[in-house]
Amino acid sequence: MSIRRKELGEFLTAMRQKCEPAAFGFPLGQRRRTQGLRREEVAQLADISPTWYTWIEQGREISVSGKALHRLALALRLDKTQRAYLFELAGQRDLQPAAAEEEIAPAFLQRIVDDFAMPAYVMGRYWDVLAWNNAAAHLFGDWLAPDTAPNMLRFVFANPHARTLVEDWETRAQRIVAEFRADSRDQVDDPAMLQLVDSLHQSSPEFATYWKRYDVLERHGGLRGFNHPQRGHLTFSQVTFQLVDQADLKLVLLTSA
């Protein structure tokens, strides 16, 4: 028995035992000795075989599909974190992940970046820049301006200013595409993602070339050079943070190198 299968079985057992039968439509009865729901009751709620469900709790090496896990998550009324943990233990990708419980207000994001003296900005799922401070606006210029709906990818590949501002533009551009591909791996079939990639293909031959290479790299910090038209050559150390409750959001800081 693998450790993951054992953990999966014990996790489901613990979740089942926390369920109050009456809340799920099952009478308590005087002969009920099982804490929480019975295995056959969970199987009934999830529309799966009681034997098969028992095998899962026993940690047997059987195939557990994403659809079955989805039904189990609904049957046991798992919350967002519990559902993600269930799929992780089973080694399955959740095709119907729970939506974020609430969106962070733009005004709150703005207050976050305004607290920093160095250039700071927040990027969303598809690298739209949702908030930025004055230091970032002074660095990037008119690209970061109110009512412009800035996007980091469109800036790098469709804004001529980027090619002179960003030091060693070609190397950085290639890496940005690889980072974006890795970062958006869970949204490869999302219409908004497809529309963005298609528009970049149309506007930038370089993007089209780099995208076809299928390079994937995780985002990491490091030195970032800029050739500012007024301030000359500038070097920053880039640090990126992800929010725990909003994993799609990234807080980027450019600290003095």
TrEMBL record:
InterPro entries linked = Cro/C1-type_HTH, Lambda_DNA-bd_dom_sf, MLTR_LBD
What superkingdom heads the lineage?
Bacteria
One of its Pfam families is MLTR_LBD
The residues covered by the HTH cro/C1-type domain are 27-83
Any single GO molecular-function term of the entry would be: DNA binding
For this entry, the protein name equals Transcriptional regulator with XRE-family HTH domain
